[in-house]
Amino acid sequence: MATQLSPYRLSKARDVYNYFNVFNAISWNLLVGIIITLFALRLGASPTYIGLMGSTFYIALFMLPFGKMLSRRFSIIGIFSFTWILRSICMILAVAAPFVDYAGHRNTALLLIMLGVLLFHLIRGIGMIGNNPVLSLLASGPDRGSYMTQIQIINSAIGMFASFLIAMVLGMEPPVFIFSILLSAGVVTGVISGIVIKRVPEPDRPIDDQGKKLADIFKDALSQDHLKHFIFIFFLVVLVSGVTRTFIVVYAREVFNHNDGLISLYSVFGGLGYLMAGIIVKFLVDRLGAKPLFLVCVILGIASLIPVILFPQSAIDNVTGSILFMVFLFFMLNFGFLGSEGIAQTYFLGLIPAEKMLDMGILYFFILGAAGAIGTFLGGLLIDLLLLIGFSSFVSFKILYLIMFALAVLAVAMQKRMKPLGSLPLSDALEVIFSFRDLRAISLLDKLSKAQDSHEEGRLLEALHDTPSHLAIDGLLERARSPRLATRQDAVRALERLNKISKNAEKALLDDIANNPFTTAYISARILGNNNCADAIPKLRELSRSEDYMLAGESVIALAKMKDDEFRPEMEKIILDSQNPRLKIMGAEALGFYHNIESIPVLLDILRGKDQPPYLRDEVILAIAMIVDTQKKFYNILARYSANNALAATLAADEVEATIEFVNKALNRKKSKDGVFKISPFLYNFQYIVDDYIVNNNGAELSRWILELPEEYSRSGSAVRNVFSQAVLDIELSGNDCLRLLIIHWAAHELRIWAATLK
Fold it and tell me: Which element (helix H / strand E) includes 442?
């Protein structure tokens, strides 16, 4: 099992690794960044030479097996440190190249550059055996993606700054000896980075696979479908990335004739693109996952190739336009393809078990090396071949980038074969990226993870409550386990605003209703009901008799929303037996959700009780209205009555008058006189019967009227008619104006339906 550093030791180790990355990035940019390509071009290097030199970066990765053999005898950190120092020292060969060129031996100078770069990368390849184990150790925990992207941000920020300084130095086409000074500074910072890395803790060395042969590693990888598909997609992306970014420098110099200083300035914008990709990925990766962000970066890289393919030759001489075009190209290529390489490693680390990290890490860099080496070398040969045939530099690069465009599109087309690893689908990820609400939720979650006190937590949780997003689920669940009650309540309330909850959230809410009565359990019960979580039904049934009346009430409502009809009779008993008005109210609401006519007598029994609070009476009446499907229209009547109890007779008269007017208009349009003849007596007597009931409290005539309503025109059915015909005669219910208004409204509603259905 891999060693898990304590939070303090992990923080210290990450600080050391960050310092290492600063010096390493400076050294890289001063030794083998864009500067070495410009140096070679200054000495007259051909595209094939540039392609071959670029391929050494990738060829070096085939040295990883030697690093693995050394790791059996020496510590991984020791190998890492020694090779980083030695590789920098090897670049002294390139430092000497300007002096050799000054002596008149240009080919020898180019050879020294090539040897220096080759040795640099070969030795680096040996040392990179420690890269994945170190990253796996330091990037442990839920912030794996964001930490790895932080490393990318450091590298890109340093690279951008170094490119800017190089652009300032090379801007006026200085003597070639200036390259010796810049390279010497790179050697010094490289040696420092090798010393700093010694302070990083030694990662675990896998035991099971130490004797595994390279062929067995490949066989193991190719036997796993998801890993096999990723390898192929990754190969294509790295090939395209290596070619497009390596030859963009040659493209700027050979096609647009821009000088070293201007091209170095473009690389500043390239670094800015990589930095922006890192910042965006760091912000999103732990919420969206690595896969969709990898694909988004590749798609952006593809989009950046389209202008190269379509760029008109006539626009080359436009200085301003060509400069802006190259700025855009450097920025987008680095943002897209270099950003995709960075996030690909995060995806790979999530795909591989920790015990296979060393061997599969070798595989990863082999694929990286093979794709990059093949692409850059063949790309250089293709350019030289096209030039030899007679194509112009402009057309030659257009053909090269068209081929890269096709390969990148093929990689994206295969993305469905990649394992999600818990990531959002690409379409959902794009929806989040373009959603202000989701982006704000992610920002709030990041702030919440850094909150220093409970008051700040509360403020951020309140903001999350007002910004519902499914991306916030994991962060809210973490806060729902807080030792502070107010924080737990705020977190659970924020979960309630979500349209959908995850399985993890459902499990956490089930634990909450079981273990936290009188605190947050009632909110969790409500959420489970709103999200139709059927697994919660047995526990909610049990909790419907909880001493926590809020939990009991929310439990019965949740069961009703999930249409647990089997439990409805038991629910009716609970409501009738309870003396708690709030539980009775919630129970009445629950029975309303069932829309079951058999529950109306139970609700009427509640109204028969003495000294019932007005708010309980109103809720029961609304529940009955919901069952007979007249709640929406009746609610306004009830609201007006609650505001002024003296309006009962007036509201009843209004209902009758409006119904008579509606029915008469409907009858005037009917062709059949038979139907009109049947309904007319009911309509004619309706006003008199209602007046007798509402003014004189005499429900006998209304009871007969209700029972005589034809079955074929009624939507409520005979059961409702029987219940209401008895209710208007019930002395205990006769003084309940709300119930009388509901029955009158229902009767009017029945008349309207009858008139509307006549032909």
Answer: helix 436-449
